[in-house]
Amino acid sequence: MSDGAAQPLPGGAVIVRRYQDFQGALPALCDALAVKPSELRFRDYANIVKVWLTPPAP
Questions:
Q1: What are the pLDDT digits (tens) for 4-48?
Q2: Which end of the chain is more exposed for a tag (fewer CB within 10 A), N or C?
Q3: Closest CA relative to residue 48, chosen from 31, 13, 20
Q4: From CA 58, how far away is CA 50, in angstroms rounded?
């Protein structure tokens, strides 16, 4: 999306599955930061989401 072009959103089932995948990964992501998921502030949560969505470098 760096070129500013709009991309269509995936269907609801895909969004739900990806959210469930993220929720499953969240405890390990929080462990790496030595924080409990229930203690995350919004900014920290948003950064974790950003990291999780960023594809690994080749």
A1: 678 898 999 999 999 999 999 999 999 998 999 999 999 999 999
A2: C
A3: 31
A4: 18
Within 13 Å of residue 13, how many CA atoms lie on the same side as its CB? 0
Q: What's the confidence (pLDDT) of residue 55?
A: 84
d(CA 57, CA 49): 17
What is the distance between the alpha carbons of residues 37 and 26, in angstroms, rounded to a whole number? 7
The answer to whether the CB of 35 falls within 8 A of the CB of 44 is yes
Rounded distance between C-alpha atoms, residue 31 and residue 53, angstroms: 18
Give dist(CA 32, CA 11) in Å, integer: 31
